[in-house]
Design goal:
By secondary structure, the protein is mostly beta strands. It has strands spanning 2-7, 10-13, 18-26, 33-39, 46-52, 58-60, 68-73, 78-83, 92-99, 115-116, 120-125.
Length: 126
């Protein structure tokens, strides 16, 4: 089992920045990659970004490309989401997720991930 704990959410004005953190514990050696998803009220959970553990290859949703950056800490089993130029439409609960198996062709799908954090609220005011 892998446990994930997110932190770093909060309230920010449009155009501002936030950094989300996700710490993994447990059987972290089984992790193939990790990702961030978000879910706004009344909407489905959607992919934001992902990173492959072996080579730190990254993947982004079009809506956040150029504004968000996903990174990992090689020493610790942690992943970060640096969010810049935030917009009100970025408001959502952000979830960290970890995948045991390859997600090279399915990194955007919720079903590719085996473990989920509890989520952290990000609110962007206009």
């Amino acid at each position: 089992q892998v446990q994930l704990v997110e932190s770093g959410g909060g309230l920010v004005q449009a155009g501002g920045s936030l950094r989300l953190s996700c710490a993994a514990s447990g059987r972290t050696f089984t992790i193939y990659g990790m990702g961030w998803f978000r879910q706004a009220p009344g909407k489905e959970r959607e992919f934001v970004a992902a990173i492959r553990w072996s080579d730190s290859n990254t993947y982004y949703a079009d809506a956040v490309k150029g504004r968000f950056t996903i990174s990992r800490d090689n020493a610790e089993a942690a992943v970060y989401l640096h969010m810049n130029s935030l917009k009100p439409e970025d408001t959502a609960i952000y979830y960290c997720a970890a995948a045991r198996g390859s997600f090279a062709y399915t990194y955007w799908e919720v079903r590719s991930y085996n473990y989920w954090g509890q989520g952290t609220q990000v609110t962007v005011s206009s």
